[in-house]
Amino acid sequence: MSMSVIRAAEIKIAEAKKNRLVKGPVHLGVGQEAIAVGVSKNLRNTDRIFGAHRSHSHILGVDNDLHKLFAEVLGKNTGFSGGMGGSMHLASKSKGFLGSVPIVTGTVPLALGAGLASKLQKSGDIAISYLGDGATEEGVFHESLNFAKVSNIPILFVVENNLFSSHMHMSLRQPLNTINRFAKAHEIETKLVDGNDVAEIYRTSSEFIRKMRLQPEPYLIEAITYRWFGHVDWREDIDVGVARSKKDLLNWKKRDPIKRLSNAMIDKKIWTIEKQHTLDLKVNELIDVNWEKALKDDFPDRKSLLDNVYKYD
Amino acid sequence: MSMSVIRAAEIKIAEAKKNRLVKGPVHLGVGQEAIAVGVSKNLRNTDRIFGAHRSHSHILGVDNDLHKLFAEVLGKNTGFSGGMGGSMHLASKSKGFLGSVPIVTGTVPLALGAGLASKLQKSGDIAISYLGDGATEEGVFHESLNFAKVSNIPILFVVENNLFSSHMHMSLRQPLNTINRFAKAHEIETKLVDGNDVAEIYRTSSEFIRKMRLQPEPYLIEAITYRWFGHVDWREDIDVGVARSKKDLLNWKKRDPIKRLSNAMIDKKIWTIEKQHTLDLKVNELIDVNWEKALKDDFPDRKSLLDNVYKYD
Amino acid sequence: MIKTTYSDAILSGFDYLLKNYPEVFILGQGLWSPWYVGNTMKNLDKKYGKDRIIDTPVSESACTGAAVGASICGMKPIVVHPRMDFMLYAMDSIVNQAAKWSYMFGGQLNAPVTIRSIINRGGSQGAQHSQALHSWFAHIPGIRVVMPSTVQDARDLLISSVLSPDPVIYIDDRWLYEQTANLKPIKETPLNALTPKCLKKGDQITIVGSGYSTLLALNASKKLNSDGVRAEVFDLRVLNPFNSKSILDSVLKTKRLLVIDSGWKSCGMASEVITSIVENVPTNTLIDPPRRITLPDCPAPSSEVHEKDYYPNEEKIIKFINDSYYF
Amino acid sequence: MIKTTYSDAILSGFDYLLKNYPEVFILGQGLWSPWYVGNTMKNLDKKYGKDRIIDTPVSESACTGAAVGASICGMKPIVVHPRMDFMLYAMDSIVNQAAKWSYMFGGQLNAPVTIRSIINRGGSQGAQHSQALHSWFAHIPGIRVVMPSTVQDARDLLISSVLSPDPVIYIDDRWLYEQTANLKPIKETPLNALTPKCLKKGDQITIVGSGYSTLLALNASKKLNSDGVRAEVFDLRVLNPFNSKSILDSVLKTKRLLVIDSGWKSCGMASEVITSIVENVPTNTLIDPPRRITLPDCPAPSSEVHEKDYYPNEEKIIKFINDSYYF
Ligand SMILES: Cc1ncc(C[n+]2csc(CCOP(=O)(O)OP(=O)(O)O)c2C)c(N)n1
Ligand SMILES: Cc1ncc(C[n+]2csc(CCOP(=O)(O)OP(=O)(O)O)c2C)c(N)n1
Ligand SMILES: [Mg+2]
Ligand SMILES: [Mg+2]
Question: Could you give all domains of chain B from N- to C-terminal order, each with its CATH number?
Answer without folding.
Answer: 3-297 (3.40.50.970)
